[in-house]
Specification:
GO terms for molecular function: DNA binding; DNA-binding transcription factor activity. By secondary structure, the chain is α/β, with parallel strands linked by helices. Helices cover 41% and strands 23% of the residues. Helix 1 packs across helix 4, helix 2 crosses helix 3 and helix 4 packs across helix 5.
């Protein structure tokens, strides 16, 4: 069987086009013509021996083999970029202070920090898991270099913020069994939430009030671990996103159990400096790559 050596430039065009939802936009981002990117995609399909994209309406969507190729393309590109960074930027030194929402702790932190540490062993990272208000305060005060925080719907206090994307807010229930509550019943909906003030607690109660659904706070916790334990035990439902859910809970389908449909929640990257140091910029790049792979993004 003839070995196939996929071209990384072609894989990068393919992955970027899928990410942006447009191969014309990918061509512009990569500094190539649209026809050049089209030729790359044709070459990739010839190497793969199958169609990777199919037309849907005015756009293109992945075929089943295309989804498989995309997963491998992302892995190959990550490994390539990691190798390049290790060889070209191994001399990076310094100290980076990174802040994250607790939701992203297990979903992002091990992979991001592991990749960065392998490529830049001389850079020290201090990671802090905290709530929105504390993260923004620390970035504004120069006590964090980078932070991922939810869009709180108010003007940001940080000097340099960029909206990265949106994630659907979801009602979270136990993984096993049905939710023991009905909108037709007399009992108010039991809510499980973080201690106030909490962005998603406010969003939940506001949405329920607008829908005319009575509610009560059944359990509060200072950490997400407590939230997941309470939801898994059937004490109530929580409002979060699909990021970092443990197997003991599940995101309810939109409209399930008569609960109101929730809007998208914006995610921002906050920087202390407009032009970050090289080490900070490299960590930011790895963080962005990992976020692109999160299936919870809308």
């Amino acid at each position: 069987m003839r070995r196939v050596n996929f071209d990384l430039d072609v894989l990068r065009s393919f992955a970027l086009g899928v990410e942006l939802g447009s191969f014309a936009k990918a061509a512009d981002r990569l500094g190539r013509s649209t026809s050049a990117v089209s030729a790359q995609l044709k070459k990739l399909e010839e190497q793969a021996g199958t169609a990777l994209l199919r037309r849907q309406g005015r756009g293109m969507v992945l075929t089943e083999p295309g989804e498989t190729m995309l997963a491998y393309a992302r892995r190959l590109l990550e490994l390539n970029d990691e190798a390049a960074a290790a060889l070209q930027g191994g001399a990076l030194e310094g100290w980076i202070r990174l802040g994250l929402q607790e939701d992203f702790g297990e979903a992002l932190l091990p992979d991001v920090l592991g990749r960065f540490a392998r490529a830049h062993p001389k850079v020290r990272i201090e990671a802090r898991i905290a709530r929105n208000a504390e993260l923004l305060d620390r970035v504004a005060g120069g006590r964090l270099d980078l932070a991922l925080a939810w869009d709180a719907g108010a003007p940001t206090l940080t000097p340099h913020a960029e909206r990265l994307g949106e994630i659907p807010m979801r009602w979270i229930g136990p993984a096993q069994g049905e939710l023991d509550w009905s909108p037709e019943g007399d009992e108010p909906l039991p809510l499980v939430s973080l201690d106030a003030p909490c962005l998603m607690r406010t969003a939940a109660t506001t949405a329920l009030d607008r829908a005319g659904i009575a509610w009560r706070i059944a359990f509060t916790s200072a950490s997400l671990a407590g939230i997941w334990a309470a939801v898994a035990a059937g004490l109530g439902v929580a409002l979060r996103t699909g990021v970092g859910l443990p197997p003991s809970v599940r995101a309810l389908a939109p409209g399930e159990s008569g609960l109101p449909r929730m809007p998208l929640l914006g995610l921002h990257l906050h920087r202390a400096e407009a032009e970050p140091a090289p080490a900070i910029a490299r960590l930011e790049a790895i963080l962005r790559q990992r976020l692109e792979g999160l299936s919870a993004f809308a």
